[in-house]
């Protein structure tokens, strides 16, 4: 299933268009995308059997598929090649480097984002959507807690992020308005060739910036869920931004950051594509 937020309503995306979930379920399921994921354990069997008439839609009407998550976890330096380009010893990473993005930064997959002052960088990420909450979830049971995946960009204003003294301001530097593009849809794992190893990348215009595979994670999805839930109680509808592969702007020589008029195109195998345009105020 491919579950999306079309102008504020929960829909299934098919090859023929969008099926309105509330209408197709005869009112059994909410039209609110967030409520759908918060009630995922009851919703998914109904969704799996859902049929309905599909209607044409515009990509520009797609919004963040999980618009109001209770918690957003974000993981830093979680790909081997990104650790290498950042000069970090992988052996020193014994627990996922964790911060948060504030929910007010979320936007849709075809948004226009206003650039704040500073150095704005890209980080394409696989985003896990939690469908079943829990505390102390074992890695062997973690897949049962996943509703699906979507594409995310952990946009980062580096001057603010790195401002000191330590600890640095990761969460604030990554939470300007529009700094969390997600979508175009939440895709259930049965749609994917291998949920543990998907091609992932992004480009600025026609220039490829990141080109990797999610199999290059240091802590894979089950390990992330186990580690995070060993401290926090996971809730249905939470998001986990799982880290980014090599190729960010800050580690290039010379450094490169997003500018007025740039289009950032992000893709993950089986999940689709998002296109975000940047403008100055």
TrEMBL record:
It holds the Pfam family FAA_hydrolase. InterPro entries: FAH, Fumarylacetoacetase-like_C, Fumarylacetoacetase_C_sf. GO terms for biological process: small molecule metabolic process. The keyword NADP does not apply. It comes from the Bacteria. Keywords: Hydrolase, Metal-binding. Residues 72-278 form the Fumarylacetoacetase-like C-terminal domain. GO terms for molecular function: hydrolase activity; metal ion binding. The keyword Hydrolase applies. Belongs to the FAH family. PANTHER family: FUMARYLACETOACETATE HYDROLASE DOMAIN-CONTAINING PROTEIN 2A (PTHR42796:SF4), FUMARYLACETOACETATE HYDROLASE DOMAIN-CONTAINING PROTEIN 2A-RELATED (PTHR42796). This is Fumarylacetoacetate hydrolase family protein.
């Amino acid at each position: 299933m491919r579950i999306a937020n079309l102008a504020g309503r929960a829909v299934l995306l098919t090859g023929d268009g969008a099926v309105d979930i509330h209408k197709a379920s005869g009112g059994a399921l909410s039209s609110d995308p967030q409520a759908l994921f918060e009630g995922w354990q009851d919703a998914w069997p109904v969704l799996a059997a859902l049929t309905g008439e599909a209607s044409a839609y515009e990509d520009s009407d797609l919004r963040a598929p999980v618009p109001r998550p209770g918690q957003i976890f974000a993981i830093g330096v979680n790909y081997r090649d990104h650790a290498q380009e950042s000069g970090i010893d992988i052996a020193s990473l014994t627990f996922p480097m964790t911060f948060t993005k504030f929910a007010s930064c979320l936007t849709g997959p075809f948004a226009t984002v206003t650039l704040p002052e500073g150095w704005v960088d890209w980080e394409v990420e696989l985003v896990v959507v939690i469908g079943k909450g829990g505390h102390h979830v074992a890695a062997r049971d973690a897949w049962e807690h996943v509703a699906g995946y979507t594409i995310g960009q952990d946009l980062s204003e580096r001057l603010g992020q790195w401002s000191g003294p330590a600890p640095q301001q990761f969460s604030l530097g990554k939470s300007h308005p529009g700094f969390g593009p997600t979508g175009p849809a939440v895709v259930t794992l049965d749609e994917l060739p291998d949920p543990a190893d998907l091609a992932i990348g992004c480009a600025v215009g026609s220039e490829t910036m990141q080109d990797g595979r999610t199999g290059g994670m240091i802590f894979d999805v089950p390990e992330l869920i186990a580690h995070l839930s060993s401290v926090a109680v996971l809730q249905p509808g939470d998001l986990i931004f799982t880290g980014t592969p090599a190729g960010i702007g800050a580690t290039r020589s010379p450094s490169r950051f997003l500018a007025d008029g740039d289009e950032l195109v992000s893709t993950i195998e089986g999940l689709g594509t998002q296109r975000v345009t940047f403008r100055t105020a």
